[in-house]
Amino acid sequence: MKKMILALLAVFTMSCANGQRLKQQGGSVEELVPQGCSHYETMGDMNKDGIADMAVMVNFKQPVFAIYFGTAYGKLKQWKEYGKLLPANENEDCTNNYVFEISSRGVLTITMQPECSQGSYTTEITRYSYRYQNGDFYLIGKEVESVQRNTGEAELVSENYLTWKRQVKKSNVFSEKPGVEKWTRLTRKPLEKLGANSLGEVSIDKHSEAYILERMDAIYSRYKDENGVKRNVDYDGLFCSARYKKLYKEASDICVKNDDILLDYDHWTSSQDDGDFKVKSIKVQNITDSTALAIVEATNYGSKTTIRLKLLFERDDWYVDDFLNGDGAEGEKAMFQKVIKGEKE
User: Fold this and answer.
1) How many structural domains are present in the chain?
2) Phi/psi at 292 (nearest 5 deg)?
3) 3-state SS class at 59
């Protein structure tokens, strides 16, 4: 693990007067930044045209970050200004410190370290790496380094959005024992543009195993109240996919017309009597951009039961698209389709 940087990074104490703006073009940072405004800049060739470019932060009331591309006639011309990229200080006890670097390969790295004078045992540094490609800057990597000052527990989480791999290294700064390292794969998704989110803003990866597990846990944790009584909630309406509900309604209407019952059990618990139903564990497998499989291990009156749920990503979240049978080969939707097909024949 890299040595934790505990030194002050870049503190800006002098703010600019309201209404002042960065200039669109100039020969130097002094020409671009309003007089009296504190600023921090770094130079390097980001667009790989052989001419030095500049990234600059200026301490207006809201910190402003801007990128200037160098020109053949010796001027710096503003490419884009970001007014909400860098979070403002929330209060007088906490300050966001920044460092900006441009590597020899043109990668722009923004390092952010919140520093609080009181109330925090954690030191955390986050590094965001951006590369200019296809006409814009895209996030290609993120690294979060944290240390618990009281226990010495340290963690480095590094995500590479070019290889879609995630590395987690855990160690203790007070111990000479080697740290523990774990690699996992990330779900591929479009690269995030610079400025799409404020730095430090929580970006939820809804295709991650952790999020899907949290979603399933939230569903089942609400199935019964604190007294173990099943809640009077339309779970199918809330948590099933649109196409599952459509098939279910069509098959159910046919059964009602024929004085029959479509389902004589609760598919959420795979039982007719779930008075003692308890979830023991949930696993998620086979995650793709639009589908996943959730396996719920539970007990009911002393007997073990396994519930397999086919998930579908729609409406910006995960919904149950089918309740599979014991071996997972076929599910309720296949049964619904047989009912519908039989009625039509």
Assistant:
1) 2
2) -160, 165
3) coil
